[in-house]
Every structure is written in structure tokens, then in C-alpha cells.
Amino acid sequence: MMSERYETGMATRRRVLGDAHVDRAEAAKDPLDAPFQDLITEGAWGTVWASDAITPRERSMLTLALLAGLGNVEEVAMHVRACARTGASRRDVMEAFQHVAIYAGVPRANHAIKIARAVWAEIDAEREGRPHEP
């Protein structure tokens, strides 16, 4: 039986990342990493992302700036894609990365912008029903 925090986290995670992403992640979960995945669902999604102290848009911008600023770019693409669900615009994302450039370094911001531009090209191709060419 899952905790209330887990259930809240899973609902928040699905709202922000989308069912397809969460379904893929859940299908890839195995007994070894399940406790870690549960921790993320309860802590990140069930506590932090579920809080209404700031908007999902603001949370997306903070998350992207922190990921880029710390050089943890593995999840930048996923969170850029999530902006469509949180209300953070492309301009919002670029503003967050400008902060990264000033406070954490131009190379980190530049790398994050490169990732964001690739994601936006994929999104645009999907919307137009054409194949995306990297």
C-alpha cells in the first residue's frame, strides 16, 4: 500500500511530465531501484512539486536553472518538455538560463540552451507532423 504522499507525488509527476513519460519510467523500474524511485516520487513530487507556495511555472524555471547551474544536465530536456504543462514559456526558460550564465557560468547556460533548442525543435516537428532531424 502506497502512502498518501506517494499518491500525491505520482499525480503531480503525471501532471507535470505526462502519462507517457511516467509510464515509461515505471515500466523501467526494477526491485533494485524501486526504493529510490519511491523516494523521488514522495520527496520531489509529493512534497516539493506538490507545494502550492509557488506556481508550477516558477518551479519549472527554478528547476531548470538549478539543473543547468549545477551542471546536472541529464534532466534538462525532460524539464524543458514539462514546461508545456507548467506554463513556463520558451522566453521564461531563456530568462532562467540567463541567470545561470551570470551566477553559475556561461558554459553551463550555453549547454542548457543547446539542449532546450533541440527539445523545442523536436516539439515543433511533432506538432507539424514531420520527422525531427537532429
Compute the number of strand runs. Answer: 0
Helix content: over 70%
CATH fold type of the largest domain:
AhpD-like
CATH class of the largest domain: Mainly Alpha
Which structural class fits the helix and strand makeup?
mainly alpha
What's the total helix number? 7
Terminal residue distance: 43 Å
- Counted up, domains total 2
Biggest sheet architecture: none
CATH architecture assignment of the largest domain: Up-down Bundle
Shape: globular
Oligomer: single chain
Radius of gyration: 16 Å
| Model regions low in confidence, pLDDT < 50 over at least 5 residues | none
Strand content: under 5%
CATH homolog superfamily of the largest domain: AhpD-like
List keywords for this structure.
2 domains; 134 residues; 7 helices; mainly alpha; AhpD-like
SSE topology sketch:
Layout: H1 4-17, H2 19-28, H3 34-48, H4 56-69, H5 76-86, H6 90-103, H7 106-128
Helix pairs in contact: 1-2, 1-3, 4-5, 4-6, 4-7, 5-7, 6-7
